[in-house]
Amino acid sequence: MAHASIASLRGMCGGPRDGALLRVSLANALLADGDAATAIAEIRHALNFDPDYSAAWKLLGSTLADFGDAAAAIDAYRAGIAAANKRGDKQAEKEMQVFLKRLEKCGRDPATN
Asked: CA 52 to CA 85: how far, in whole Å?
C-alpha cells in the first residue's frame, strides 16, 4: 500500500500541486516504508518551499534523531523553534523545545562538546 501512495505522491512532484505539504506527505509515506534517508531529503525539499513550516522542521528533527544524527537533529529543532516562533505556532515551538532539551541532556549538543 505504501508503494502505491509513494508513487502517487511522486507523480505530483514538479507539477502545479508541488509544495511543502506534498513533500512532507511524501516524506511520511517514505518513513512508513522504512526509507528514512529519502524522507529526510524530501523534508528538506519541503523546507525549500516554505522555510517557516514548523511541522516540517519538527518532522526533520525527529527523523534525524531516529536516524542517529543528533547534531543535525539539534540544528533542525533550533531552526524549527525559530520558525514556529515567527509564525506564532506555540504548540510546535513547545514540543520542539522538549525534544531539543532531551537531545541536549544526552550530552550530544555540538555547541557544548
From this structure: 9
The string of pLDDT tens digits covering residues 33-91 is: 999 999 999 999 999 999 999 999 999 999 999 999 999 999 999 999 999 999 999 99
Residue with cell 522504512: 34
In the chain, domain spans: 2-105
Q: Model's pTM, two decimal places?
A: 0.89
The architecture (CATH level 2) of 2-105 comes to Alpha Horseshoe (1.25)
